[in-house]
Design brief:
The longest helix has 23 residues. It is globular and about 50 Å long. The two termini are about 25 Å apart. The chain contains five helices and two strands; from the N terminus they run αααββαα. Helices cover about 55% and strands about 5% of the residues. Strands 1-2 form a two-stranded antiparallel sheet. The chain has a single domain, classed as Winged helix-like DNA-binding domain superfamily/Winged helix DNA-binding domain (Arc Repressor Mutant, subunit A).
Length: about 120
Amino acid sequence: MPKLNELCVDVSWIRIYILLRATAQQRVSSTDVTADLAGRGFEWERASVSGILRGLESKGYLTRIATRNERRPGTFYALTERGRAATREVAMKIREMLAGTRSSGSSGDSAAGRLK
């Protein structure tokens, strides 16, 4: 099986992944995202993921949350209202794109169905 990094996954897809993950888990950190990506076959440096998180924060999609009382050190981020709206829009567009691949003659086990 080829390494998934050979697919040249663009930073934009990592941004989308981070927003979707923040929707599902309420908060994200560079350590958690880096580990999860590695577990799925994508090797990204933690510093790169941290930069993406800071960029999403500077654009208003994420907000930094306090961690003073946390057992785990580090910086965590949560979705803002702007981030939630963008995530809903992106998820809808991805479903539309994947539905189009199903209607072009693939089997009944569609990628769109797995995204739900």
